[in-house]
Amino acid sequence: PARRRTAPEIQARKGGTPIVSLTAYNAAFAPLVDPLVDFILVGDSLGMVEHGMDSTLGVGLELMIAHGRAVVRSTAMSLIVVDMPFGSYEASPEAAFRSAARLMAETGCGAVKLEGGAHMAETIGFLAARGIPVMAHVGLTPQAVNALGGFRSQGHDAAAREKILGDAVAVSEAGAFAVVVEGVVAPLAEEITRTVSIPTIGIGASSACDGQILVINDMLGLTDRVPRFVKRYGAIGEAVSKAVSDYAGEVRERAFPADEHVYKPRG
Ligand code: KIV
Ligand code: NA
């Protein structure tokens, strides 16, 4: 039986064949994704795409644990990374350790992800030294949507680019095993990838990153408004509408259930 990929294996792929990843949140989609990617992120984007929230700020540890468990249970090959939700790690390295330990112990995931650059470096080092592989996340960090003034691309002036590059270097030096680079101008994503020693996982970044990630609901066509950086690889939303509409019609016509769907008495 195949063994799950590990954080060190992902880290070792810096500069190699691109690392493939997607988010997944449940036991319906995660097993379909599992054999085809290198890691699965149980992202706090689930608050928006699975729970109808308008940001990720309302997602808590219990919700991440519930979805993380579902994904770990229903997969066998991919590394599973679970997002640390807003409010569960920022206050101190100790608070972050307690939250990360719960995520790992209660879900069985192999790594956690947190948002932040230089200001989270101490926390990343604290977790890494205590056996918790940490993926960092720089650029457009959705938990900071209120401070950033919206979900908008980052790195449009030299000072912003210098700050984000500094963030990526800081998390790499602090011991993160990989870093998500989200929503930044392509030349910056390329410079970060050349500069840091850990794999960069791009989303709205550049094909030069060491890997890519997308929110699965977006790429499958299950969400109606998507940012410019999303490519739709499927039309699953349309497929669902068609199936539900066919079902509704057949129920109304009493065409479903048919003979083969009903039980007949044996005697
Ligand atoms: O929550 C999420 O889905 C993420 C990815 C988009 C990187 O953080
Ligand atoms: Na996230």
TrEMBL record:
How is its cofactor bound, per UniProt? Binds 1 Mg(2+) ion per subunit.
Q: Which residues form a coiled coil?
A: none
Q: In which pathway does it act?
A: Cofactor biosynthesis; (R)-pantothenate biosynthesis; (R)-pantoate from 3-methyl-2-oxobutanoate: step 1/2
One cellular component term (GO) for this entry is: cytoplasm
Q: Which residues bind Mg(2+)?
A: D44, D83, E115
Entry's Gene Ontology BP terms: methylation; pantothenate biosynthetic process
Catalyses: (6R)-5,10-methylene-5,6,7,8-tetrahydrofolate + 3-methyl-2-oxobutanoate + H2O = 2-dehydropantoate + (6S)-5,6,7,8-tetrahydrofolate
Give the active-site positions.
E182 (proton acceptor)
Keyword Magnesium tagged:
yes
Keyword Magnesium assigned: yes
Which terms are listed as keywords in the entry? Cytoplasm, Magnesium, Metal-binding, Methyltransferase, Pantothenate biosynthesis, Transferase
Binding annotation for 3-methyl-2-oxobutanoate: D44, S45, D83, K113
The record's section on Pfam families has:
Pantoate_transf
Q: What superkingdom does the record give?
A: Bacteria
Known EC number:
2.1.2.11
State the Gene Ontology terms under molecular function.
3-methyl-2-oxobutanoate hydroxymethyltransferase activity; magnesium ion binding; methyltransferase activity
Which locations, inside or outside the cell, does it occupy? Cytoplasm
Q: Which family does it belong to?
A: Belongs to the PanB family.
**PANTHER family assigned to the protein according to its UniProt record, in alphabetical order:** 3-METHYL-2-OXOBUTANOATE HYDROXYMETHYLTRANSFERASE
UniProt name for this protein? 3-methyl-2-oxobutanoate hydroxymethyltransferase
Instruction: Tell me the name of the encoding gene.
Output: panB
